[in-house]
Every structure is written in C-alpha cells, then in structure tokens.
Specification:
The complex is a heterodimer of chains A (about 250) and B (about 300).
Chain A (H helix, E strand, L loop, with lengths): L2 H17 L1 H23 L5 E2 L2 E2 H32 L2 H5 L5 H30 L7 H25 L3 H17 L12 H7 L3 H14 L6 H25 L6
Antiparallel strand pairs in A: 1-2
Helix pairs in contact in A: 1-5, 2-3, 2-5, 3-5, 3-6, 3-7, 3-9, 5-6, 6-9, 6-10, 9-10
Chain B lengths: L4 E9 L5 E10 L4 E5 L6 H9 L6 E6 L2 E2 L4 H7 E4 L11 H11 L6 H10 L15 H13 L5 E5 L7 H16 L3 E6 L2 H7 L2 E6 L2 E7 H8 L2 E7 L16 E3 L4 E6 L8 H10 L4 E8 L2 H11 L1
Parallel strand pairs in B: 3-8, 3-9, 6-7, 7-8
Antiparallel strand pairs in B: 1-2, 1-4, 4-5, 9-10, 11-13, 11-14, 12-13
Chain lengths: ~250, ~300
Amino acid sequence: MNTQAIKVIYKYEMMRAWETLAQSFASPVISTVLYFVVFGTAIGSRIESVDGVSYGAFIVPGLMMLALLTQSIANASFGIYLPKFTGTIYEILSAPISFVEIVIGYVGAAATKSFIIGLIILFTAGLFVPLEIAHPIWMLSFLILTCISFSLFGFIIGLWASNFEKLQLIPLLVVTPLVFLGGSFYSVSMLPPAWQTVTLFNPVVYLISGFRWSFFEVADVSVGLSLAMILVFLCICLIIVWWMFKTGYRLRQ
Amino acid sequence: MQPIVSISNLSKTYASGFQALKEVNLDIQPGEILALLGPNGAGKTTLISIICGIVNASSGSVTVGGHNIDTDYRITRSMIGLVPQELTLGAFEKVWNTVSFSRGLFGKKPNSDYLQKLLKDLSLWDKKDSMLMALSGGMKRRVLIGKALAHEPMILFLDEPTAGVDVELRKDMWALVQRLRESGVTIILTTHYIEEAEAIADRVGVINKGELLLVDDKQALMHKLGKRQLVIELEAELTNLPEALAPWSLESSEEGAQLIYTYDPHKTNTGINGLLQAVSEAGLLIKDVNTTKTSLEEIFVSLVNTK
C-alpha cells in the first residue's frame, strides 16, 4: 500500500480546510446555530416536548445530521472535483496508487472535517440546552459512519459532475429536502399515518432516528435497522466508487 | 538491449468514435531522447497519456521496464514522470509544497536535500515559498518539470514542453533535457516544433492521424530522406528553358531568374558537373550558385502530406 500517497493527499486536503477556516468550519457552525435559535428557541418555546424530550434538545441530533450530510458531501465532492476542473487530476491518475488509497486520502479528509464540525455543533448546542448522551459510543459510531458514508457519496458526485452546476444539483435538489423531511425538526409519529408510511422510504429518517436514539433513547425506527441502513448505504457507495475507478468512468476516458 | 518502453499494437478509440491511435508499435531504448513529431490532433498526447495511466487503451499493450502498465501499474508508474502540455497547477499552493506533494504521491519518502537540489537546478529555489499563481508562465512550466522529477523517475515524458515559451526559455529547456539525459533519464518529448526535434532528439517518430508513420535515428532519417538542392541564379530571366537542360528536371523560380536542381548527395554522380557545363554551353550567364539542405521540417511535411 502506498501510505505516503495517502498521507500527502490527506494532509493536502486538511491544509486546504485550515487555510479557509471561516468557510470550512465557521460557516456551517454559524448556520446550524441560526437554525437552532430559530427552531429551538422561537418554535421550541411553543412546543413543550417531543417524546418526553424538550424540543430544543430534540432537534440537536437532526441539526447535527443536517450539517454532517451537507458538509460531508460538499467537502468530498469539491475535493475531487477541483483537481478535475483545474486538470491537476493527471497527477493522481498517473501516480502508482490504487483507488482504495485515493479514496482513503480524499474521503478520509472530508470525513475528518465533517466529524470536527459535528463535534463543534454538539459543543455549541450544549451551550443552549442541557444535553445528555445516553449512549456516547453509539453516538460516536453513528457520527463516524455518517461522515464516512456521505463523504463517499460526495466523492461519487465529485467524480460524476462535469460542471459546477452538477456539483450542486444533488445536494440541493435531493439531499437537503430529504434531510428536512427526514425528521430533523419533528418526530415521524407527529405526521398523519399516510405520510408516516411515505417517510419510511426516506433513507435519512433511519440516520436521524438512530442518531437521536443514541442521545435520548427515543427512535422512530429500530436502532438495528438504522445501523443496517447506514451500512447498506456505505456498501453501495463503495461499490459505485470501485466501479467508477475500474471502468475509468469520467476519469480515464 | 531491452527497450525501456515497448508499445505493441496500441489503439485508442474515444467514446465519441474518434480513433486517436491506430495499431501503434514502438520501442524506446533506455537513455535516449525520442521526439514524437506530429501536427495538432495527431495522437501524441493520447499515446503518452496511455503509457502514464491517464487514458485507458482500447486494445494493445504497453510494457515499461518489462512490466505491463495495467497489471504492474505501481512499478511502471513509479518509473515515469510526466510534464503535461497545459499549465495545470493549483493556484494557492506554494512551490515547495506542490513539489513535496508530488514526491509523496509517488510513494517516495520526503527528501528535502533532493528537492532543494532539484529546485536549484530549475532556478526555482528563490521561489520555493511563492504561491503558484504568482509565477510567470515559464516558471510554472519549470514547476511542472520539478513535480515530474520529484520522485526521481527513470523515464520523463514531456508533452510539448516549449509550447508558448519564449526563445530563451526554450534553449534553457533544451539544455535541461540534455542534462537529464546525461544523468541517465530516458526522455520522450512530443512537439510540433521541428527545430526542437532537430536540436535535441536522438530519434524522431512521426505521427499523424493516429498512425506512427516512421521512427528513425534523426541523422539516418535526414540522410535517408534528405535531399539537396543546387540553386543557380542567372544574370538574366529565362522565358523558356533550353532543351539541353531537360535531362536535369530543373524547376525555375523568381520568374526564371533561378534554376533549382534537386539531387541526392549520396550518389557517386550527382549530375552537378554536367549541369553546370550544359548551362554554360547554353550560353546562360551565372550570377551565383548555392546549395540548400532539406530540413527535418520539409521531410516531415512531405511525410504527412503523402501518407
């Protein structure tokens, strides 16, 4: 394994984040805090509790997921799209590295950035509402798995995108609506029965439900199912990335 | 001697249906400078892109140092350095960082002594902490060479290294190529500047419309295909060529003031003596005589046009 290559790709991607600190870390944290203030404070003051959890605390896992998903996708897709756009991808393609090493370098860095953002948001939320994490190990596991899975998904988007518009297309038109409708700000049980069934087709529901369970032991679907869904998503992404590198799809013409 | 790069029946057809390479066969010897000459769109970049792993071949095979580029890609790619045609560099990186990145990417441990020497050789040492976007075009080109050499490759591909480069830098680049060759690096460069191939290459390959028309030693090529011309400048313009001069198949130019005789300098009887005698007997007064050698450019144009 070419560990030197993984190291330099990872380091390069992390350096890019530190050099644009405001954009990489401050911006997602501020926007999440704004959501928190608007939903948690303004609306939360009119909703006493959901499933026995104060509304302010209830939305924390959902808001973290919202930030994690969008940031993981944005970081990873931009990380690989940028060298494609500038043409510097030639160096990656001509280097003695396998797709596994490329993925570990790029996706690892994107997931690390999202993980840091998640922790900052968690810490910031703790300043607004009292937070207790019932299952910290599970919480960290869900956090890490989500960061990796959605960074992989973002990596696929970055490989697929042939222009900046396409780079934004899936995050804006697919991911954001799925997160908003995936129970970030409400419990699925609050919906009419017909919509509860429709919601179950939204994969993000499983992510948020599992993550929320690790905090409050309150879930819309079983934890095992949530975990299985993340792992299935992770596997699908891995297979797609493997296929893209094997066939050279949009990479090696 | 075993070739360092061996290309067999290599073809490439892009998804658009464009056939960029047609059954190319080529052996490159260790330590040589091979110039691949061809017009734009001839297939030069596609050929080196396949060898370097950037483009997948449609059929055929390539070995580098005896290793297949698909199955032993880790070995073959670590032997190769590539300088692309375009100035493809990030904007916000520093020279030192980007060269160190390239070295690591090819699996080499950091070696600041080597990189320092490399940047000094490329006259980039005083720019090591400069942002890439602040560099001139010529310096960016040198950074690309630095990146390609950062992992100490045995083979260097230079894709049109002097395209859009001023004369002084072009000469610097040629000197650099010679120095690299002296250090044992095999160099393959693509160019559409004939003078470049003529100045620095050991062998020349001519490629056009995806076909490798010929590969030969530069001197042998010029010897084989090179013709000489004898230009006889006359005192007075000729309206009709005298019958006695017909056997020499002369061309006339400058409205009959010049007679041009094309001959093979390697023949024992070039026909020059007889021609000069016939001109004199025809009563034509000679103002000046000179000979010209066919350049590689003329050889190239005639090859590309005839095939």
